[in-house]
Amino acid sequence: MVYNTQMNFRQKVHIPSHIYIQAIDDEMVLLDTQSENYFGLDGMGTVMWEQLSVSPSLEDLAEYMLKTYDVEEDVLHADITTFIDKLVKNKLITLGEL
Amino acid sequence: MLVFNRNFIFMDDKILENTTTKVLHLEEVYVLSTDRLKVSDLFPFQSPWVRMSGREVRYYTNEPFDMQVYITSWALEVEDVVTLIWDSKQHTVTYIEGKQYTAELLQFWVLHTFFPLVLEFEKRYTILHVSAVEIGGNVVLFSAFSGGGKSTLVDYFIQQGHTMYGDDTIAIEEQHDGYDVIASYPFHRPYRQPEALGYDVPNFAKQVKSLSCMYVLEKATTQAKIYIEELTGVEKFEALYQSRFVTFDYMKKERYLFASSMAKKVKVYKIIVPWELSRLEEVYQAILTHNGV
After folding, report:
1. What is the distance between the alpha carbons of residues A59 and A63, in angstroms, rounded to a whole number?
2. CB contact under 8 A, A26 and B232
3. Domain span at B250
4. What is the ipTM of this complex?
5. Chain A closest CA to B263's CA: distance in Å?
6. Which one of B230, B236, B237 makes the best mutation probe of the A interface by having the most chain A beta carbons within 10 Å?
7. Is the domain defined by A11-97 classed in CATH 3.30.160.270?
8. What is the pLDDT of residues B78-117, one digit of tens each?
9. What is the pTM of this model?
10. How many CB atoms lie within 10 A of CB B70?
């Protein structure tokens, strides 16, 4: 499958061991124990995070989201790219080849 | 003196006894002086100096500090003031006086800093850096950054006849369906002064009671509208995570798990507090109403 975004979706997500994750109310709270910064994921972020914990593949994530939500493929890919970019920028995940 | 649900007995400084009634069935903790001990002979490990309450302090332990799960024997040196040594078997704080020692400084360092650390290191209770009063049979906590109005609000509650659980810290203990609150020490300091506990509070809690909720005080302009809103998710987590008294690096995971676990059991609210003393009554009434009183 070819995506119209710059992100390579043939990658998998790795969560470093110093990142702790807990669900609080309807949000996922992530703590980086090295920097002691913490982050909250909104509803959609939480859904994507939960799916990544089922399968770390970005392709699988995109496929799941397309099946589950009524959303244009381009829009979805842009949303996933933004989401993943933020997580990477804040060192909450790393990306590796499948 | 009743301190964290124990009877504290200052053996060599009777001027430190306050008016709080001794509770007979409780554990006793003795605080006594020595000039025969040298702390470096007792403990092979010592931490670097760190700044605390305007003083340099360091820890002494039998094993590397961050390698221990339960720390039961240790000491705290407050430079030039006092060195405090904990003996968990004897329930005793032994102290060595420094050049600037006074009985009041001893009392401050034992009650405000040393004994809360004892309770945390032995995993007896979790200590929170909050104020607390009783409202309608349960305990509510007030959290704010330093100078954020906790003591002023507690002062108002004390004046209205509420029982105080803590001016600056309290202990909590997790129960199946919530948390119990253990009152800290019977002093209240409605002014800013380092190394001072403030004045005696006769209406100090003698009973452990259930935690009702926590309010995060948010300073606002003098004319601001007072309102209360519930915090959820990461905001709630942040309020609880920041309220821990002990923030050692090696305890980060435990701190995180504590805050997430507490977030699932306790309601946390933000209250807008106008920075105007004449409006404290409105803030007080808003909190009472919110608690159904």
Report:
1. 6
2. yes
3. 128-290
4. 0.81
5. 7
6. B237
7. no
8. 999 999 999 989 999 999 999 999 999 999 999 999 999 9
9. 0.90
10. 8
